[in-house]
Amino acid sequence: MDLGIKGKRALVCAASKGLGRGCAMALAEAGVDLVINARGAEALEATAAELRKFGVQVVAVAADITSDEGRAAVLAAAGAVDILVTNAGGPPPGIWSDWERADFIKALDANMLTPIALMKALLPGMIDKGWGRVVNITSQSVKSPIPQLGLSNAARAGLTGYVGGTSRQVAPFGVIINNLLPGIHATDRAVSLDTGVMKARGISMEEVQAERSAEIPARRYGTAEEFGATCAFMCSQYAGYMVGQNILLDGGAMYSTM
Question: What architecture is the 9-183+223-249 domain classified under in CATH?
Answer without folding.
Answer: 3-Layer(aba) Sandwich (3.40)
